[in-house]
Amino acid sequence: xxxxxxxxxxxxxxxxxxxxxxxxxxxxxxxxxxxxxxxxxxxxxxxxxxxxxxxxxxxxxxxxxxxxxxxxxxxxxxxxxxxxxxxxxxxxxxxxxxxxxxxxxxxxxxxxxxxxxxxxxxxxxxxxxxxxxxxxxxxxxxxxxxxxxxxxxxxxxxxxxxxxxxxxxxxxxxxxxxxxxxxxxxxxxxxxxxxxxxxxxxxxxxxxxxxxxxxxxxxxxxxxxxxxxxxxxxxxxxxxxxxxxxxxxxxxxxxxxxxxxxxxxxxxxxxxxxxxxxxxxxxxxxxxxxxxxxxxxxxxxxxxxxxxxxxxxxxxxxxxxxxxxxxxxxxxxxxxxxxxxxxxxxxxxxxxxxxxxxxxxxxxxxxxxxxxxxxxxxxxxxxxxxxxxxxxxxxxxxxxxxxxxxxxxxxxxxxxxxxxxxxxxxxxxxxxxxxxxxxxxxxxxx
Length: 446
What we know:
By secondary structure, the chain is an alpha/beta fold. It has three domains: 12-135, no CATH class; 140-165 and 254-442, von Willebrand factor, type A domain (Rossmann fold, 3-Layer(aba) Sandwich); 177-247, no CATH class. The protein is 40% helix and 14% strand. Mean pLDDT is 76; it is low at 1-10, 37-41, 158-175 and 441-446.
């Protein structure tokens, strides 16, 4: 029996970094309605849209090496490209299946085979609704991690501790000289300094205040020698309360943050998607807090015609809402959330691209005026900013637009609450937000 040997080219799927591909698909997976700004459903998350996004990532995203792409497409001079197209389609289907197997997406069950088995047939015409997919929590967590890694990499940072202040306290990390123990301090003893105090005190009690010189290292060395010579007499060092010395560490404060996201329709209009980058930054901030500041708290508030708090796990799935911008209601809801938090620092991070144009009245009705800055709306919003300052809440605003009226309003709010106003773009938003958050390390907050 004769055998025909061919060159082994390997499996194309094995050459693909699936995590890198998922990161390239983040714009689709975090879609906010930019492709169809007047649709409030999930028309963007169809299997066809996923297919096209994967195809673009394969050829333009640098996911596959050039040699692999050339081998995949075959010889361009070949008149018959049917095999190449078939191989490409098969690869894309395998990628989608692998994404589902590894938990990045979920798709509805295929009911066509069941309909055919029951003899009912199935719809396949233009009236057939498109097959959609759902983004999983694993994907949102992964995209937040990748966004955080990319942002910190661009800042030249790799790891951060908790929010440090200039106040000294008894902590775990040694940053200052030891101090005598006082009631209420964490009993984080400095063994060498404590033993040295005990030896000095016993010397003074026995010999008076004669010259005495001993180092902490000699005390510890002597104790170590006593351990190695069990037959030698064992002098005791009696440690009393006044001998105790504790290690000082930098006081590390905790922070409660409400991230206020403007999800009015202006965030996806005017030819630019501003809401998807804002969601990506929010996911990165959540990852930063979870991994580096576990004692901090992060809540998310969306504001549009009104305002609502959403679970952090649902952040990556939200889309733009109604048209107007009710900034006062967002600040009010955020203040109520932060009033329940017992943290050293409480702050609101507001990301917006529009001036306030709506106001919730006492009877629940929403007053709207999108033409210029309504004096009534501005006055009520500034009053809420003053209430936040009275509660000890700082408001830092990140503006994605530079409209003159918006700039003047945000500067007024920053002046009232002694916060900051940042003029940024969707491309630099993440760097500004993370740097501002981590800059709290160097601030003295009491």
